[in-house]
Amino acid sequence: MDVIGNVKHQTIKPPEEEELPTSPGHLIFDADFESGNLGKVEYCGNNEYDLYIRVDTCNQKYRLWFHYSVTNAKVGQTCIFHIVNFSKGRSLYREGMGPVVRSTSRVNWTRLSQSQCYYWKGESGGYILSFTFKFDVDERYEFAYCFPYDYARMQSKIQSLPSSLVDRRVLAHTLQKRNIDLLTIGSGERHIVVMARVHPGESPASFIMDGFLDFITSEECNIAKYLRDQVTFKIIPMLNPDGVALGNYRCSLMGFDLNRHWRDTNPWAQPGLHAVKAFLIGLEKEHPVDFCFDIHAHSLATGAFMYGNVVSEDQQSEQQAFPKIFSAFAEDFSLSKTNFNKDAVKSGTARRVLRGLFPKSYTLEVSFYNYQKDLRSVPYTQKAYCELGENLARAIAEYYRKYPTL
Ligand SMILES: [Zn+2]
Asked: What residue spans carry the region label Disordered (predicted)?
């Protein structure tokens, strides 16, 4: 990886030790890897560091996703990191969310506890996330905004699926020659499109996709078999792989928010999206498509919910039937947060543009942080995101049991 603007194996020393050879305690920061994002580090004394998120490639507007590694800490060294340049002030960090961490010997990501984190308004008016961290072993540590799920991981996920059940095709290549994969699973009369990661920083969407793929390709599960008999799934697991690999939050390599470009895709500027749109138009000509789900993550909301389109009154109850069933299967899915809108700001989104093709086109949103259960806040884990994907599949099966003729 070589993303211009990312910190590359940079040693940060106190100014008075600048001339000394590097020794333990001089932290070495790096974000030169897939999905890495860290633009600048400044030492501010007393083991405190100001960290700057790198803007999305070719777009100055968005700074939220960060992912970097630290090595060469002294055992027992406690540091304070300040993430100083988020592009928006409102954040789930206000609600107790913490960044995630893992290290060489502790490979599973965990969230930092609320007591280690502090989200506050700096003197310049921007919001700052400060967190303390004690390095207890001499090894490599990684920190990120939320659980990373990068392009390489999705590629190996796809490889691992049973080839007897999954037809894999590459729909197009992105500008950086990554795959836009299309998976066809099942052979039923019904057709459903599921896609994710048009917004690269929204990594929970990939865990949902991961859980969904595992469920519908399960060889033992009867519900999965039923689904494969009833439905032909057309799945595009990663719509913006360049953005994911580059560590962008919102945009493609060329700085486009692809989810505002469905209306006017361009073959040279957005080759992946252009190919996906052409494919979906062709698909609809061959078969009616019952549902289209586009999976995202939300930086302010809690829980999971859907956005749907406003439709004529006689179609309304049909439009609401699926979210109702989903809410019965997933305790984190909120029917009351689900809404049907026609905001101008959402006019280039998949849901809005594709509704002409697929009337039941939904955006599935999930919180980067938590959901409410019995008035308690339950932080999402990677597993809980995967389970939401499984529950999406279960709800689809239930929908067809309940409404075999819709
Ligand atoms: Zn999104």
From this structure: 1-21
CA of 37 to the centre of ligand 1 (A): 18
Q: How far apart are CA 82 and CA 382, in angstroms?
A: 25
Beta strands in 186-276 (DSSP E): 190-196, 231-236
Residue in 142, 202, 365, 390 annotated catalytic: 365
Model pTM greater than 0.90? yes
How far is it, in rounded angstroms, from Cα 108 to Cα 137? 16
User: What pLDDT does residue 2 have?
Assistant: 63
Residues 352-356, mean pLDDT to the nearest whole number: 78
Q: Which residues surround ligand 1, an ion (CB under 5 A)?
A: 199, 202, 296
pLDDT in tens, 359-406: 889 999 999 999 999 989 999 999 999 999 999 999 999 999 998 877
Task: Tell me the CA–centroid distance for residue 349 and ligand 1, in Å.
Answer: 9
Rounded distance from Cα 366 to ligand 1 centre (Å): 10
Domain boundary residue among 81, 114, 144? Answer: 144
Query: What is the residue-averaged pLDDT of the chain?
Result: 93
Where are the alpha helices (H) located in 123-240, listed in sequence order? Answer: 151-160, 204-216, 222-230
Residue type present at position 171 = L
88 CA distance to ligand 1 centroid (A)?
Answer: 15
Instruction: For residue 365, indicate whether it is catalytic.
Output: yes
Q: Kindly report the CATH number assigned to the domain that includes residue 298.
A: 3.40.630.10
Range of the domain at 194: 151-402
Last residue of one domain, picked from the residues 121, 144, 167: 144
CA of 199 to the centre of ligand 1 (A): 5
